[in-house]
């Protein structure tokens, strides 16, 4: 699991990062992303959208309790980082983000032009 | 860029391989949840577990002799929608952590914040070194 979570190279800087496990859901008019970033608080979360790239970074405050030694670890204390390529069908201005219990939820609205449209057909009786 | 190609990296060979193994071994997958770190002091232990998306109602922590058991269920928060990518894991879990020394069962505290569970335990008086008087 650690191998999967800690990855080097995805980040713009040459550093080790944790890759947040992510679910992506699609509905008719939006995409929802749920990223697991335990330990990240609102003030330590950075999101930028530039040139079709959505960058998400959650900074972790390194925890080192005084008078205690780290004896066993199944995860490393790196920042969370993930980058997504976003298509032109997304409304850049309408991205909503909420952070709760270490899970970041992003809701991306689809642009009107790409939503499925209903075409009504008039049938004339002969 | 093609307008339909949001999340270009949605499906890769790696995903296909991973999903194959993930679906075949649900028990193995849950054994390692949650991931923990253990800090040890002279008379106290602090265990931190990554539990994103869980509330205190979803987790039980109890002590069985010299092991700490963390168990509960991670409930799916979006089950009914079609997904493009699924990496998060849900379901029941149970994890046992062997403690380095006997702890005081009346002196255990657990708290949760921002998806991290913090458990603090104190060394039992019985486990502390005792001076033996020479008659």
Query: Which structural class fits the helix and strand makeup of chain A?
Result: mainly beta
- Quick one: which chains have the greatest interface? A-B, 41 and 44 residues
The succession of helices and strands of chain B, N to C, reads: HHEEEEEEEE
CATH topology of the largest domain in chain B: Immunoglobulin-like
Number of strands of chain A: 10
Number of helices of chain B: 2
Strand composition percent of chain A: over 45%
Q: Could you give the distance between the termini of chain A?
A: 67 Å
How would you describe the overall organization of this protein?
- The complex is a heterodimer of chains A (126) and B (135).
- Chain A is mainly beta and 126 residues long.
- Chain A has one helix at 2-5; strands at 6-8, 16-18, 22-26, 30-36, 45-50, 53-58, 69-73, 80-85, 90-100, 103-110.
- In chain A, strand 3 and strand 4 (30-36) form a beta hairpin.
- Chain B is built from 2 helices and 8 strands.
- In chain B, strands 1-2-8-7 form a 4-stranded antiparallel beta sheet, with no helix packed on it. A 3-stranded antiparallel beta sheet of chain B has the order 3-4-6, with no helix packed on it.
- The relative contact order of chain B is 0.21.
- The N and C termini of chain B lie far apart (88 Å).
- Chain B folds into 2 domains: 1-30; 32-126, Immunoglobulin-like, CATH 2.60.40.
- Helices cover 13% and strands 37% of the residues of chain B.
- Chain B has 135 residues and is mainly beta.
- The A-B interface holds A 1-2, 21-27, 31-32, 34, 36-41, 52, 63, 65, 67-75, 84-90, 101-103, 114 and B 1-10, 32, 35-42, 44, 46, 48, 50-55, 77-78, 81-89, 100, 112, 114-116.
- Strand 3 (22-26) of chain A pairs antiparallel with strand 5 (83-86) of chain B, so a sheet runs across the interface.
